[in-house]
Amino acid sequence: MATSITRWDPFGEMAGMRSLLDRFFDEGLPRTLHRPAEEFGPGTLGIDVVENGQEMVVRAHVPGIDPKDVDISIEDDVLTIRGETRSEEENKDDNYLRRELRYGSFQRSLRLPPTVDVEKASAQFENGELKLTLPKKPEAKARSIKITPQGVIEGASTEK
Fold this sequence. Notes:
Among the domains are: 14-41; 45-87 and 100-139, Immunoglobulin-like (Sandwich), CATH 2.60.40. Helices cover 15% and strands 29% of the residues. The chain is built from 1 helix and 7 strands; from the N terminus they run αβββββββ. The chain has one helix at 10-33, and strands spanning 47-51, 55-61, 70-75, 78-85, 104-111, 122-126, 129-135. The chain is flat, with a radius of gyration of 28 Å. The termini are far apart.
């Protein structure tokens, strides 16, 4: 009885895995970027990020929260917004027909581009909206470097 042996190709297996990951990032990721915050799960803060030529602006709606209950930090170019919503005293005699208000802690982190000047970041809080303004760094001025032909000394006469 003849037995056939098939050579296993580990690189073929890895190519299949790469194809699967490529498909996930091409098809799966963009849809999640446009979902409402509640679909990311409890404790996730929904944000809008707008960038123009001068600055990057991050907005988050946090109605009913005292600004002192919100912590904003930037570490290693990662912006993190943390906070907590506190519930009112719950009365056991209340007969809730619907209860949708969420209470508890929330957090959102966002990697900032290297063009943001984190030292000049500022935050405003008005009418339940948190607005972070992150100015961009001044662009480095381009510098031109002249290339001289090899063997030619700058300023030397080329006449013979």
